[in-house]
Amino acid sequence: xxxxxxPVSHPSxxxxxxxxxxxxxxxxxxxICARNVNVHYGDKHAIREVNIDIARNQxxxxxxxSGCGKSTFLRCINRMNDTIEGAxxxxxxxxxxxxxxxxxxxxxxxxxxxxxxxxxxxxxxxTIYENVAYGPRIHGLAANRVELDEIVTNSLQRAxxxxxxxxxxxxxxxxxxxxxxxxxxxxxxxxxxxxxILMDEPCSxxxxxxxARIEDLIDELRASYAIVIVTHSMQxxxxxxxxxxxxxxxxxxxxxxxxxxxxxxxxxxxxxxxxGRFG
Length: 279
Ligand SMILES: Nc1ncnc2c1ncn2[C@@H]1O[C@H](COP(=O)(O)OP(=O)(O)OP(=O)(O)O)[C@@H](O)[C@H]1O
Ligand SMILES: [Mg+2]
Known about the structure:
This protein is about 35% helix and about 25% strand. By secondary structure, it is of the alpha/beta class.
């Protein structure tokens, strides 16, 4: 059986009536369309009827108070919630015309197309080289060692880490500083040619200088990927994103252009949050 699901004929479903979201759900040329996404953890209804589009070459920031469902929604996008016992997901998420929850979807392939960078840098217990080479090797992206070396070099260059590690590629990934480890994790993600990079508070364990480097990198990477970043820093959302989504107690309240969300929020809950009255 083919691991590639049949394309569905409705990649851009209409937003159902009656949902609370305000702002433009639809991004320009969406790569991902999420419709009516709900997640339960046992009895806990963690996110409700989330409708949002994610565009190519854009950064979408997801903000909102702790526990509002940002990480839960992010994990839906590359099926990381599949690994959480008791998690149940309903609704549709379509990536470039393919339903990612189709039972024929190969989840390993999906996670190569939709990579993820976590809050705490999590290099494999391997060398710097092997951290980056691992994915291309298991996905068969290099025909020989020369090609693999090229992918590793190129990924480390694009992640802005090459100059710092080129003379120590056989040192353990864990011997790097926190900010370097996070860039190594980004290099590892881009080494398998993803289309989307999901980042869950990627800078919250980093100092301001390392944070600034990652933010610059996000801006550069946007030329090649769709990026979704969860952040507790509204300054960061304003600096790195073109669109912002505000979540509150499991509901997507508002989504729209970042400038507009921060200067002219349409929903009182968004306004209260961005002006520091809530959360
Ligand atoms: N594995 C789990 N099992 C049960 N409940 C969970 C699980 N993960 C999250 N939840 C619950 O789902 C809700 C949403 O959690 P989630 O982690 O998505 O929030 P968040 O917006 O990312 O919060 P934070 O900003 O603190 O990271 C919360 O009420 C949380 O307690
Ligand atoms: Mg979270």
